[in-house]
Amino acid sequence: MKTVHATFATTDDHFELAPPQPGRAVRALGLLVSTHDQASVQLLADPGGEPRVLMPAVYVDGMRSFLLTLGRRHAFVTGPGEALVARVVSGGPTLQLSLLVWYEYAS
């Protein structure tokens, strides 16, 4: 599980949630987003080049939260050796959010 709480000067940012491990995929089991301003969050698989979309963008209104629980059967899964990355785009002048992701490494 990884928790990210951050304020960014930019309104479009990517950050790594789970680093890649050789031969192992990452399963995103759940996601909780809480934002101060309107924002969208998208989960990506990053093989070290062009990221691949795992989850379509989820839009969260300002001062609201969004909870998504998937479990192992419906999890978003990266390819082996790919990192789990979040892309966040803010509707305001800065990006203020809390992001909690439940994940595990699959063999």
What does it look like?
- The protein has strands spanning 2-8, 12-18, 25-35, 39-46, 52-53, 58-60, 64-69, 76-77, 83-90, 95-106.
- With 107 residues, it is mainly β.
- The strands form two sheets. Strands 1, 3, 7, 8 and 10 form a five-stranded antiparallel beta sheet that branches. Strands 2, 4, 5, 6 and 9 form a five-stranded antiparallel beta sheet that branches.
- The chain starts with a strand and ends with a strand.
Helix percentage: under 10%
Number-wise, the strands total: 10
* End-to-end C-alpha gap: 17 Å
Uncertain segments: none
H/E element sequence: EEEEEEEEEE
Main sheet, how many strands, which sense, barrel? 5 strands, antiparallel
Average per-residue pLDDT, rounded, comes to 88
Provide a count of the helices: 0
Strand content: over 45%
* Overall radius of gyration: 13 Å
Q: What is the global morphology? A: globular
Structural class: mainly beta
